[in-house]
Amino acid sequence: MNVRRSAAALAAIGVLAAAAPATAAGPSPSPKVAVPSGLFGKGDPTYDGVWRQSFALLAQHTLGERPSASAINWLVGQQCDDGFFPAFRADPSKPCLGKDGAQADIDATAAAIQALQALGEHDGEVHRAVGWLKGMQNKDGGFGFSIEQPSDTNHTADVIGALSVAGENVTALRSEGKTPLEALSELSIPCSADGGGAFAYQPDKKGKLAANADATAAGVLGALGKGFVIEPGKARDKAPACTASGKPTPAQLADNASAYLARTLAKTGHLTSSLAGAKDQPDYGNTADAVVALAATGSTAQAKKSYAWLEKNAGNWAEQSGPAAYAELIFAAHAIGADPHDFGGTDLVRALDATGPATQTAKATHSEAKQGKHDSGTKVWWIVGVGLVAGIGIGFLLSGRRKRQQP
């Protein structure tokens, strides 16, 4: 499962467990589910099917590829009548919600919106999903793991990104007068405090904010109104610093958070996992997210250093984690203008494509190659025949160009 998504899910589970320790010991082991045709990845999709599919399709589109129609149709078929996307809908013919139905998932819906908006020709699906997301806003202006849960940085940022990509004016989205950006501001740690500039995931029981690198990377993009994909921009002459002010603007919140990430990454080049039992373990996914966040604020010097660390160390992680991990690394490469075909000896594009249905571009190339071979062969013998009739000896003719085929 994607690191950002799993961290948010575990945090939400922790909130539930604290509220009802007798009944909320965590989710039961997921059943073994057959991977449907059209879905990226081979792992059990119960908790991340829509998420990883959306990331894969968005990454392929960012690379200029035309994703498989079957892959796009699978994602579209996951949408429920109310407009939301579940984490995974095993049987799209059955209604959602209810005791045995697919449950609403804010993360999955936000990711699906970004993918379908980028692909185009899915205005109806995007419009319905956007309408549902708006209805999930909490009283403080933000968004949580579900409608019953308090707002947190990750989900608020992901929703801001999805709505912004869909062309919505996030500053006009208010709940009891408060906007999502105001909710993010409340989760930002003042520069003078420990972890200054960072975002917290949520306040603790006493209302205290603790720096969370995962939430901080998400918060940068949320404050800037950006989605998962960042176009390469001009580097700043001087990296952002944490600047105290009475009420920071969204741009200042992003700069403050970026400064925190740069300080943290400068120590080792990577972030470390905050999950229980993962002492000093590198967090590859969140490091990739941090690269994108730094690039979004023009902090490209540290972004490139951390990307170089990923090139040396994240190949095995991506191979084991699957399509969403490859997509995260592709987003990081795109954000700093690096070549995703040459990632420490790995072609991220080919690796991602190999986890799902062949792209339409690959199919067209394969078809053209076969047709080109047939046409060139016919042309050779026609020319040879004419040459013989005319008494001109033609020994051979070089034919056809070999077209590169995607996996």
What's the architecture of the largest domain, going by CATH?
Alpha/alpha barrel
**Main sheet makeup:** none
Q: And the CATH topology of the largest domain? A: Glycosyltransferase
Q: Encode the helix/strand succession as letters.
A: HHHHHHHHHHHHHHH
The proportion of residues in beta strands is under 5%
Radius of gyration: 24 Å
CATH class of the largest domain: Mainly Alpha
Q: Using DSSP, what is the number of strands?
A: 0
Rounded mean pLDDT score: 84
Helix content: 40-55%
Would you identify the regions where 5 or more consecutive residues have pLDDT less than 50? 6-31, 365-407
Strand-pairing-aware structural class? mainly alpha
- Could you tell me how far the N terminus lies from the C terminus, measured between alpha carbons in angstroms? 23 Å
Number of helices: 15
Number of domains: 2
Q: Shape, please?
A: globular
Keywords: Membrane, Signal, Transmembrane, Transmembrane helix
Transmembrane segments: 380-398
Signal peptide: 1-24
Protein name: Squalene cyclase C-terminal domain-containing protein
Topology (SSEs and partners):
Blueprint: H1 3-19, H2 49-62, H3 69-77, H4 106-119, H5 123-134, H6 153-165, H7 180-186, H8 213-224, H9 250-268, H10 284-296, H11 300-313, H12 315-321, H13 323-336, H14 348-353, H15 360-390
